[in-house]
Amino acid sequence: MRLGLTLFARTISVNSMIKRGFRLRGFKRLSEAVMGSLGQLEQRSMREIWRRGETSVGELSTAFGEIYAYTTLMTTLDRLYKKGLLSRRKHGRAFLYTSSCSIEEMEHGVASDVISRLLDTAAGRAGPVLACIVDSVSDRDRDLLDELERLVREKKELLNQGDD
Questions:
Q1: CA 134, CA 145: separation in Å to the nearest integer?
Q2: Domain membership of residue 49 as a residue range
């Protein structure tokens, strides 16, 4: 009996957090969750590269008012490259860096990963996860629910075309 009450209390607590707008790790947007895992200079560099498009270490150094050593920025961009957040190409003796994805693509990737993990941990019971998604969408906006319905219809049509 005591275990049942404990589980019930936890369920109520989680449900109340969700209703109050609880967010994963306290972040407001998924991109902030990813950015939050980066160091301060990595975050600042990513924002500047998204703003500029393609840039070199020297251009980034100038943009930051030369407050960081050139080698510090070079190491930072190399680390972002190794993490897969930047791509680079050789230009003379230097590299030109670009973002591997937009903020929107990053959010889509994180959302896809979160939903996949939720469905994997649902032990074959995707219904509660899907119901939660529908509830979240409908709580925000009825138009979003219509958009979700449209996306499901389009995906079904696409899958049916593949069966032919």
A1: 7
A2: 32-99
Identify the residue whose tokens are 């590299």.
95
Residue 54 pLDDT > 80, yes or no?
yes
Categorize the per-residue pLDDT at 124 as very low, low, confident or very high, splitting at 50, 70 and 90: low
Residue 79 located in a structural domain: yes
Q: How far is CA 27 from CA 35, 150, 159, in A?
A: 10, 29, 35
SS (H, E, C) 15-57: HHHHHCCCCHHHCCCHHHHHHHCCCHHHHHHHHHHHHHCCEEH
| Domain contains 69 | yes
pLDDT digits (tens, 9 = 90+) for 95-122: 999 999 888 888 788 778 878 877 776 5
